[in-house]
Design a protein that fits this description.
Blueprint: E1 7-13, H1 17-30, E2 35-41, H2 43-51, E3 58-61, H3 65-71, E4 76-84, E5 87-91, H4 106-110, E6 117-118, H5 126-141, H6 147-154, H7 164-172, E7 178-182, H8 183-189, E8 193-195, H9 208-211, E9 215-219, E10 226-230, E11 235-241, H10 247-258, H11 260-268, E12 272-273
Parallel strand pairs: 1-2, 1-3, 6-7
Antiparallel strand pairs: 3-11, 4-11, 4-12, 5-7, 5-8, 9-10
Helix pairs in contact: 2-3, 5-6, 10-11
Length: about 270
Amino acid sequence: MKGSNQVLRIIYAAALQQVMEKCLEHFYKQNSDLKFELKGAGSREGAKRLLSGEKYDIIALADQALFAELLVPDLVENYFVFASDQLVIGYNRSSKGSKEITQENWIDILLKPQVSFARSDHHSVPRGYRTLMVWQLAEKFYNKPGLCSTLEAACIPYATYPQSLDLSSALFRGKIDYAFLYSSEAKQLGLPYIALPSKINLSNPAYAKFYDQASVIVESKIPGKNVIIHGNPIEFAIGLSKDSQYPELAQSFVDLLTGPEGSSILEEYGFIPC
């Protein structure tokens, strides 16, 4: 059922922008008369757009747990985990302390008075609440009571760079010294970064129980209500809207992303295919 009036609508986590664009290049070769509408957004924001009535055929989010919390079963029937990642500390060539920072001393460097660091909004972007979880886990891992609160107090207010792209762009331009990013984002931007121990960077399923000790309160799908999110390994997932106008085409795109072709694209942009 091809035709020039067909428009496949996709909303995706901003961290997936280059992956989605590259996948669409490949998909377009087999569907050259198909039109596309792409929308990048924070994952919680993206899910809430569907809840508010916006129409999309495909939803790709930076946290698979958002599907169960917000979208299944009313708006999405099935979803598929397709990639994993880790949280890292990105910096730039002019960052203060960049010649000294290591996996062992990153806390001391970030807390120096002259150093600036930032995170994303935990209410709209998984990377935001995952950063808070990393800080909570670091407090336990390094046995530093009060560390999370100390980092929160020293951090640039999250409203300054609320979305993923705001934050990574500010770091790339040298507006801040350090930022908590996905390793894939740092690689795509060509930014150096410090890898954190796997017990706190949310990358290793073997530490899922340890990650679960971290929790963050965020706004729920019910206005004025909150929900507690617990730490878990970072997993990106994609699903099809139940009211998609073109379910077969949407499924074909998901098959591309989750198949060998998509795996190569994911690896090219620094993700770990699942």
